[in-house]
Amino acid sequence: MPAITVRSLTPDDASAYRALRLAGIAELPAAFCTTHAAESALPLAQIAQRLRTTSHQIIFGAFNEEQLIAIAGLRREPIAVVHDKASLWGVYVAPQARGRGAGRQLVHAAIAHACAIPELGRVCLAVAQDNHAALSLYLGCGFTLADCPAADGMLQMQLLLPRPALASAESNVFMKINTLQIPAK
Length: 185
Known about the structure:
disordered C terminus, 7-stranded mixed β-sheet, alpha+beta
């Protein structure tokens, strides 16, 4: 069996990405934040645009030779007050590829990418509580249950990223706050 390769997707992967995403939505509609009808109505050019890596988003794909067999996105929050958080989304592994490590490789690629962004402190995700394979994958990759409410049937999970640089005085936000001089009124 050939080795699985993981890389960031590009606009050239739009057709394969669309086909795999639509298969995922058809199989597990509750796991996606869209419908099959809405996603299939998107123009291919819009899907290609989604696959452009930006400072706020990247989508990874796992390939068996030339065939796209799994996908996962990582989206960073652009709003300053929560820009320390990224979301892992749209994770799907084709049925014929399950159990071969593609999902784990994708999650590890997303985590490695997140670790390379200094501002990020955590990666969050939502997962259906009855999706035991996904829960096992995420727990095995270091995610824990988050202490925040989730929609019915869903669990919120998070992974705190290692941030040794935050311990330095120059980047420690709490040190900066403690040294602020606020004039008395």
